[in-house]
Amino acid sequence: DGKKIKKGQEVKIISLKGLTLLVKISNKKNN
């Protein structure tokens, strides 16, 4: 169970990084 929780946290971190990248790209296009 501990491994499952750790893996879930890693996935959340990766998805958050991806979202921030998408936001940065969209901001550059808008400006």
From TrEMBL:
InterPro entries: NA-bd_OB-fold. This is NfeD-like C-terminal domain-containing protein.
